[in-house]
Amino acid sequence: MPPAAERVPWRWLAAGRASQRLVLVVVFVALLLDNMLLTVVVPIVPTFLYTTEYEGVNSSAAPAWTEPAPPALKAPPFSSTFSYFDNTTVTVSGSASPDLANGTESSRPPQPPTSSPPPPSSCPEGEEFLAKENVRVGLMFASKALVQLLVNPSVGLLTNRIGYHIPMFVGFIIMFLSTVMFAFSGTYTLLFIARALQGVGSSFSSVAGLGMLASVYTDDFERGNAMGIALGGLALGLLIGAPFGSVMYEFVGKSSPFLVLAFLALLDGALQLCILQPSKISPESAKGTPVVTLLRDPYILVAAGALCFSNMGVAMLEPTLPIWMMQTMCSPKWQLGMAFLPASISYLIGTNLFGVLANKMGRWLCSLIGMAVVGISLLCVPLAKNIYGLIGPNGGLGFAIGMVDSSMMPIMGYLVDLRHTSVYGNVYAIADIAFCVGFAIGPSTGGAIVRAIGFPWLMTIIGVINIAYAPLCWYLRNPPAKEEKIAILSQECPMQTKSYSTQKALRAFPLADDSDVEAENAE
C-alpha cells in the first residue's frame, strides 16, 4: 500500500477530532442511547413485575381454586370427573347431572363450578397489587434521577478540571454495564440497582456532552441549532424506546431490547475512541463559576425551573399511565409503550423546529407558550377512553416539552456568557439537575398520589402547576449583563448582545427639533 494511502485514515481522524459536526454526532448518539434505555423499561417493568410476582404466586395456588366441586355436591374433589367413567357412582352426585343419571349424553357441556370465574385475560386481576405497584415502579424509575441528582455537581467540577473527553467515555462504560444488568435481572432489587447505575452513567454523558457542545459552538445562533439537533437525539431515544421495548418484550422476550441497546452502546464507545480521544486531558483555560454562585442567579433558577416542571409531567406519566391503561382500558402489553409514541414523535418535531424558530420569535416566549400547552395537555390525558384518545394529549405534551427544552438549553449557556465566566460544565450540570429533580419527584410522588386520590387528580395537579409557572418565563426576555461581561462581549461576541441592547429602542423615540443639528455636529 502506498504511504499516501496509509495516511488517509489518520488524516480523517485528525480532521474528525477538529470537526464540530462529528462532536455533535457523538453527543447525539450518546443522548439517543441514554434516553432509549430510560424509556424502554417503561412498558416492560410494570408487566414484568405483575407477571413474575402476582401471577407467579397465584399460579401456584391455582389448583386449590379449580379442583373443589360445587358446594351443593359436598363431594370429594375427584367425584365430578370420576362419574364420567363409572355411572354407578352417579348417586354420589345426586341430582347435579340428570342427563348422566339417565345414562344419556347431553350436547350441553358440563356446568362449571359455581364460584366466580376469573375476569377476561386482557384485564389484569389484583387491583390492590396494581395500586401498590404504582408506588414501587415509581420509586424504581425515580432512583435513576435521584442518583443522577447527587452525581451531577461532582461531574460538573470534574469537567472543569480535566475537560469533557474522559467523563464522556466513563459515562459510556457505566451505561453499557447498566444495560447488560437490565437484560439479565429477574427481581425487583436487581432492576432497581440497574436503574440507579444508569443514573451515574447518564450524569457523565449528559453533562459532558452538553458542555462539549457549548464549548465547541461559541456562536449563540449556531449553539442554539446544535442544541436543537442534540436534543433531537434525546427525542429520538424517547421516540424509539417505549414502543421498541413493548414490541420486543411482547414478541421476543425481556432481554432482547437491552441486548440490542448494549450492542449500540459498544458502537458509540468505538466512535468516541476514534474521534474524541478520551485519553486526552484538556482542562478549561478559565476557572468556571462555582455551582453555588450560579444557583444564586435568579435567571438561571427560572430557566432551570421551567425545565424541571415541564418534564415532571411526562415523568409522572411514565410509571402511572401504563398501570392506569391496564386498569381502565384493559390494554395489551404492546399498547402500553405505543401510548407514548405520539409524545415522542411530536417532541422530535418540536426540538428540531424550535431550535431555529425560538431564536427568531424569542426563546422566552417559546418557553412560556410551551409550558402553558404542557399544562393543558396534561389536563386532557384522563379524558381518554382508549389508546386513540391519548394521541391528542400526548402529542401536544411532547411538542410543548420540545419547545421548552430547545429554548431553555441555549438560554442556560447564554446566561453564563452574559453574566458569568464562559465555562459551561457547571451550568449544564444545573440543567441536568433540573431534569433530575423533575424525574425524581415525578415518579416517586406520582405513584403515591395515584394510590391516594387517583390518576385524574394527579394530572390536574401537575397541569395547573405548569400553567401557573409559565408567566415566569417573561423574566428571561431581557436578562441584564454584568458590566465587565458587557465590555468583553462587545469586543469578542458583538452579535450576542445586539438582541438585548437598548439602543434600538432609543432610536424609536421621536426626535426633538434641534436633534438634527446635534446629529450633524456629532458626525
UniProtKB/TrEMBL annotation:
TM ranges: 21-45, 170-194, 200-217, 229-252, 258-278, 299-317, 337-357, 364-384, 396-416, 423-442, 454-476
Q: One GO biological process from the UniProt record?
A: aminergic neurotransmitter loading into synaptic vesicle
Could you name the Gene Ontology cellular component terms for this entry?
synaptic vesicle membrane; terminal bouton
Q: Does the keyword Transmembrane apply?
A: yes
User: Region Disordered: which residues?
Assistant: 96-125
Q: Which segments show compositional bias classed as Pro residues? A: 109-122
What positions does the domain Major facilitator superfamily (MFS) profile occupy?
Answer: 23-481
Q: How does it sit in the membrane?
A: Multi-pass membrane protein
Keyword list (alphabetical) reads:
Cytoplasmic vesicle, Glycoprotein, Membrane, Neurotransmitter transport, Synapse, Transmembrane, Transmembrane helix, Transport
Which Pfam families does the entry link to? MFS_1 (PF07690)
User: Record's PROSITE patterns?
Assistant: MFS (PS50850)
The record's annotation in InterPro entries points to: MFS, MFS_dom, MFS_trans_sf, MFS_Vesicular_Transporter, Tet-R_TetA/multi-R_MdtG-like
Q: Where in the cell is it found?
A: Cytoplasmic vesicle, Secretory vesicle, Synaptic vesicle membrane
Which molecular-function annotation in GO is an example for this chain? serotonin:sodium:chloride symporter activity
Q: Which reaction does it catalyse?
A: dopamine(in) + 2 H(+)(out) = dopamine(out) + 2 H(+)(in); serotonin(in) + 2 H(+)(out) = serotonin(out) + 2 H(+)(in)
- UniProt similarity note: Belongs to the major facilitator superfamily. Vesicular transporter family.
| Name of the featured protein | VMAT1 protein
- Organism from which the protein derives: Ardeotis kori
Q: What is the lineage of its organism?
A: Eukaryota, Metazoa, Chordata, Craniata, Vertebrata
